[in-house]
User: Fold this.
Amino acid sequence: MFGLKKSKGVVGLDIGSHAIKAVELIPKRKAGTEAYELAKIAYEVLPHDSIVEGTIIDSTAVVETIRLIFEENKIKNRNVAISISGNSVIIKKISLPHMEREELAESIIWEAKHNIPYPYEETNVDYAILKPPKGTETKSLDILLVAAKKDKIANYSNVVHQAKKNLVAIEVDVFALQNALEINYPETFENKTVAMVNIGANITNILILERGLPQLFRDLSLGGSFFTENMRKELTISLDEAERLLKGLPVKNVDEAHVEEILSQNIRDLVDEIDKTFTFYEAGDKKERKIEQIFLSGGLANLKALPVAFEERFAVPTEIFNPFRNIHYKEKDFDSVLIKETPSIFGVAVGLALRRMD
Ligand SMILES: Nc1ncnc2c1ncn2[C@@H]1O[C@H](COP(=O)(O)OP(=O)(O)OP(=O)(O)O)[C@@H](O)[C@H]1O
Ligand SMILES: [Mg+2]
Assistant:
């Protein structure tokens, strides 16, 4: 979205509040279509509370972790694309009549001033014109208006600069996820109404696309850290132990039935909140709207009971998103645990590494 400098290959760097993920892809042109080969993949957990409520508090820890990721994995490419999310980012879909470029720029400013709940001067504004559905003629331009708080952009840009990397683009999580979905599941992307739910530690990104056209983007304050915090309190254990339980690893002296009970309750609460967004979308218009496929990504998507909980609640096929489904790589060159066991953690990073910006 907020492109800063043109460059070829970039490292997609997903600075999450729980862990930093990095992916580097090499673009390959193959018979006119886009193809990508995996060059690097990296994952590093951050110290607790380095990022709180969407703000980088401990920039030293974040900078060191970025440096470590590049050094340990011998990532030579210094061009980096990052993304931001949460309530400092506002995305609005608006319709404008067809107009000349200059006039459009003025209208965008007017729309931004009237549609965004922050002072215009405190935000960076960008937009993308949405392609009309195949075979349709439209009288208006559908536009995605994106505004991000300048202080949020500065907060995230600073750590990249301090880690001595070249920041080439700042994206929004949901757009990165949309790009990752399009490349990896082109048939579903083009033909179905898809909901993608990326559940991290503190933020859950939701995007709903109708045959590739964005219908709804939303970031909710939900995620794994609410699970671990509840487990810590109710079982009087440490956060690290709660983290182990979430991953299905053993912890001494805890009542397994009690763990299951807390997990089930937390899953129910999570699905309830997501249900509100799905209902808002499906009830939002006169025409028939129905989500046909759900993809789950992010760290919490690895929770064993989650896909079933979604299928039971929504009666919609639910699949764990694999951001490497259409990416070429030689198995022997990569850490198979990261790619085989928890690929969904890299959804945003892969989307950033594709760096397909309009
Ligand atoms: N194998 C696993 N099983 C269950 N939960 C897991 C697993 N691995 C990671 N998690 C949980 O997923 C969350 C981290 O996911 P992710 O890396 O997508 O978040 P993030 O991008 O760092 O955070 P955010 O975007 O919310 O700031 C943590 O709460 C972690 O406990
Ligand atoms: Mg995340």
In short: The longest strand covers residues 33-45. DSSP finds eleven helices and 17 strands in the chain. The chain has one domain: 2-230+257-354.
